[in-house]
Amino acid sequence: MSTASEMNSQVKIQVTDLHKSFGSNNVLQGIDLEIREGEVLCVIGPSGSGKSTLLRCLNKLEDITSGTVVVDGFDVTDPKVDINEVRRHVGMVFQHFNLFPHMSVAENIMLAPVELKKMNRTEARAKALELLERVGLKEKADARPASLSGGQKQRVAIARALAMSPGIMLFDEATSALDPEMVGEVLQVIKELADSGMTMVLVTHEMGFAREVADRVVFMADGVVCEQGKPEDLFGNPQQARTQDFLSKVL
Amino acid sequence: MALVVGAPASMAQGADSVEGQTYVIGTDTTFAPFEFRQNGELTGIDMDILHAIAEDEGFQVEVRSLGFSAALAALSANQVDGVIAGMSITDERKQIYDFSEPYFESGVQMAVAKDDEAIKGYEDLKGKTVVAKTGSEGETYAKSIAEQYGFTVKSLDQSATMYESVKAGSAVAVFDDYPVLAYGIAQGNGLKTVTDKVPGGSYGFAVNKGENTALLAAFNDGLAELKANGEYQKILDKYLADPTASTPGNFFDLAVKSFPALMTGLGNTLGVTAISFAIAMALGLIFGFFKISGNIVLRGIATTFVNIFRGTPLLLWAFMFYFGLPQLTGWDISVWTAGILTLSLNAGAYVAEIVRGGIQSVDPGQLEAARSLGLGYGKSMQKVVIPQAFKMMTPSLINQLIISLKDSSLLLAIGFAELLYQGQQIYAANFRVTETLLIVGVIYFVAIMALTKLANYADKRFNK
Q1: CA–CA separation, A116 and A110 (whole Å)
Q2: How far apart are CA B464 and CA B448, in angstroms?
């Protein structure tokens, strides 16, 4: 991706001086970040550095203490903005899948389009099957989530997050809860999504994967962005002592 | 009211006005031969006299069989207009009630178990325990001689239970009004008298002091009429001279005879439980959500509600709603209303806790996943959280439903005609306490088993 095209593409998410505290614990201490359309951003860092909290602030699953987060031109910290409307354009995939156990696989995916009156049930089912085919699980449409393996559950969760055709996808440690042999199939799906031009923010511990798919890698420590850059620069030639220390432990 | 009292002209006018009126009259549940149920119908000396007078004077009566103490409480609460319950006219009672002319000359007698050869007189009671009915003349008399003969008096609420405790040996003798004892012995209640009766007071019909003067005047009028035309003596003879009330022979006959009344009772038990539980579910959902709300005021309201109704006995609320609330507010509260209020608020407090627990047991990630898809809070709860919570709540809810059904038996204390109350009515008339309770117990058991099976089936069907 050239510098010129970065300049030309539109800003999808603009984070300005973001602070987030849980009681007296200041988890995010002033984050500034800009994510452009089609960009794949990987956030890495030690546990407790605030990576997941940052991600959850982007669709306001966490209340924001101060600062602004502008998604697709909507300031999510503005009480007048309908957060549900914003979230329809931002898909999210969780570490523990969070599939709805009382619904079939297809119903999990159909829930949002049907309830939000975007499609009737027939259209939603067709869309669900199309998405399931994309993640390689079309034959599981009528299965219950409980009968799936971890990797299959996470692929269904990705399909569900895509049901509203979002412009942005957030991945919160999407492979951390998986058995090692299932990590590959999920990463494959995420990679295909990245290649299709989706704007994505991934919090991940998979350094090799981050290096492969990311346009830009952000290293966070102690609630601030410590260092960021192209993957080959950040992994190959880290500038900050904290980054060097962290990478020496995980690589 | 003050205008009416002491103004003979308006008194006379008042006396005329009973014609066509309907009066609610409270009575005892279990005071054969004055009031008792036979084949489901309330009958007895009091009832026959009351109905004969009503007919003679041209007014209607609606009889509520509440129990002696409850009938008096209901009178004070203006839930009933008058009480006829084999009640002795005493100076104490005259302070708060206006009595009719005496309609029965009573007296107290002692009875012991039929096979008891040890007690032949009061002097044999030394160191023993006797029973008498709470607030009755028998109790007053027994207490007046207790010190002299060195025995202890234990007070119970019903004649039938008193007789049972004598037969069971927890007391050696019972002091009761002689007509009641005589009737019970004739019915084969397993007792015998060994001493003479003590002449005592007279029974009267009571209204609140200074109120319902027309009704009282009409009662006196009618009573005089019945005595003059011989109807009065016929009524007494019917119950005292030849008490041939049919007592079912064996256990099977008893079961068959009592079945219709018990089924009516079961119907009322199921009805009051169903209505109350439906309301409790609504209350429980509302307060359960209040409990998990972020709003401190709503949480406070829910916590207060739950603590009040979980922290106080059900029976207290039954009395409060039936006797207390009408006095505080002047509203007319039926026994159904009071019963439903009591059961639904009590169960509602428990259901609120079940709902709170159920919702909190759903992984918070479920709500987050639904919210992240753009569904609002209400939709997310409705489609994602509540169906899962409900599944987890079901066993506890079925449990609470069964507890409420059993708790509904406590409503007999305010005269609600549920299953156990009907059983009491039956053994009050035939004195076959153990067998009747056994039949009632079997009906409860079968009803609850059936309900449990039904609920489990519904659970499997809808929560697959």
Answers
A1: 10
A2: 23
Length of chain A: 251
Question: Which chain B positions have a beta carbon within 8 Å of A157's beta carbon?
Answer: 369
- Put simply, whether A98 touches B (Cβ < 8 Å) is yes
Question: Residue A249 is encoded by which pair of tokens?
Answer: 């432990």
Amino acid, single-letter form, for residue A18: L
Q: Of A85, A102, A111, which has the smallest distance from its Cβ to B373's Cβ?
A: A111
Interface test with B, best of A98, A109, A117, A173 (most B CBs within 10 A): A98
Q: Which of residues 70-89 of A touch B (CB under 8 A)?
A: 84-88
Is B373's CB within 8 Å of A96's CB? Answer: no
Contact B416, B74 (CB under 8 A): no
Neighbours of A80 (CB within 10 A): 6
Q: What residue in B sits closest to A84 (Cα-Cα)?
A: B374
Buried b (16+ CB within 10 A) or exposed e, B405-434: bebbbbbbbbbbbbbbbbbbbbbbbbbbbe
Q: What is the 3-state secondary structure (H, E, C) of B89-115?
A: CCHHHHCCEEECCCCEEEEEEEEEECC
Q: How far apart are CA A149 and CA A97, in angstroms?
A: 11
Bridge partner residues of B449 (DSSP): none
Residue type, B196: D
Q: Which amino acid is at A130?
A: E
pLDDT values of chain A reduced to their tens digit, one per residue, 251 residues? 444 345 557 899 999 999 999 989 999 999 999 999 999 999 999 988 999 999 999 999 999 999 999 999 899 999 999 999 999 999 999 999 999 999 999 999 999 999 998 889 999 999 999 999 999 999 999 999 999 999 999 999 999 999 999 999 999 999 988 888 889 999 999 999 999 999 999 999 989 999 989 999 999 999 999 999 999 999 999 999 999 999 998 87
% of chain A surpassing 90 pLDDT: 84
DSSP run (H or E) holding B252: helix B251-292
Residue B9, CA distances (Å) to B4, B127, B217, B220 in order: 9, 59, 13, 18
Of A85, A87, A102, the CB nearest to B373: A87
Complex ipTM > 0.90 = yes
| Domains of chain B in sequence order | 9-103+204-240 (3.40.190.10), 106-200 (3.40.190.10), 251-462 (1.10.3720.10)
The dihedral sign for the CA sequence B154, B157, B161, B162:
positive
Looking at CA atoms only, how far is residue A116 from chain B in angstroms? 7
